[in-house]
Amino acid sequence: MTEGGSWPVIGMPDGYPDLSDVRAYIRVPATSLPDPDLQRMMTTAATDQTARCNTDIGRDPDSGKVNASLEQAFYRRVQREVAGRNLPLGMVGVDSAEYGPTRIAADNLIDEHERAYVRGVLA
Q: How many CA atoms lie within 13 A of 37 on its CB side?
């Protein structure tokens, strides 16, 4: 479990879906995406979400799992990582786009799912 909003620097934060759940959700076989690559993408997505959101208020106090909104946003984050894995610098249409390459757009569904948990930052 996290204590005081911190987690081990290396590895997956607690309370997130495991590898088999994520693989079933994204429907990408292990022959196309090896487990170590998917695990790295999962750790990245969970760490990013934990850094941006107060996941401690979005957890079940008994099981320690993140709630459904944060879990869905986590799945979306992983899907975006998988979709962009073979794109140079996250650019789409590098070869033949009419107006040149474009970036992968921000995912508004992730923003909607995480909205209630985003950490306020004062600059």
A: 14
